[in-house]
Amino acid sequence: MQIVSSGVKPPVSSSTPRVLLDATAVPADRGGVGRYVDGLIGALAGAGVDVAVVSQRSDAERFSRLSPGLEVIAGPSAISHRPARLAWEQTGLPLVAQQVNAQVIHSPYYTMPLHASVPVVVTLHDVTFFSEPELHSSVRAGFYRSATRTAIRRATRVVVPSHATRDELVRLLDADPQRIDVVPHGVDLSTFHPPSDVEARRVSDRLGLHGRPYIAFLGVLERRKNVPDLVRGWVKAVDGLPDPPALVLAGSSGWDDGVDQAIAEVPAHLKIVRPGYLRPADLPGLLGGAMIVAYPSKAEGFGLPVLEAMACGAAVMTARRLSLPEVGGDAVEYTEPDADSIAATLRALIEDPERRRALSVSGQARARAFTWDGSASAHLRTYERAAAAEVTV
Which CATH architecture has domain 197-367? Predict the structure, then answer.
């Protein structure tokens, strides 16, 4: 164990438990899970919560910069490989908890140590591995179903990001709602903000669009994100337009063979851009510079890209599925997730700039209600409830 940084923390209540947050499962691409963990740790440390973080060695310095005095422990180098990390979670993580005198362990991504001597809080991000198994590979779905069942049975408390996810856990797994805390994610407004003209133009140029209007999607290109129907809906929506907006599909590739097939069907005169993973610094320009941000996902535990797009001043179109209405409220345009409905909704928005401007204003106002400070306060209440509970090993 290597302590990368530590220091003097602001004073906190004597009733506040010392928490060890396990960030070793955070992927390197800083997708939704990474932004959840980053935002939460920064807000917890900023509020003076007594938190220590254990992370991959490659992440340790970055976590140490989130807050002065934050204690960061670099795990062994072997845990960069998933099987080794899962094995270390069962033996090494409880040992780290003892060494740093933690009173609660927070495992923020499904899996957890089964024999810790202190209470364990687990974050379950969605339940689509049960409700929509066809949207995941069989191996992935099997792994996360097993981890979810274990967390429901063994964790002291469970955190979920939406009421829809809690309700699905209760409906599908007969989970005890009294042990589940609904804590929405926040959005970092210093990162996700309406872009300046310079920021928007820089991203447009990098995408090869050079000021051409475009519709943006941001997320992993996997089945539940419904990207093939978005592509086909976009083609229909822009049919016959003299200056058809391009389609930008930003994000890492996932398990969805239909994406390439849908793109192969796009007429030659239309422009589609696949930039892959984009740096966080480019996201305001991508989202806020878009004519429309389209996120017609079939199933979400929260829907962080919708919140981030609203914070960037985008006019957002999404599907009325699971948690997405909890995030978008009345500040987004809703569509059914089939290609024809997507086409009709996109065309209506393309032809109505006043509606897009209204969505931009209302989306920014709604996004301001989702803060990492508020999320951290709710997590702290969960830690306090966990610390007060009896541990079953």
Answer: 3-Layer(aba) Sandwich (3.40)
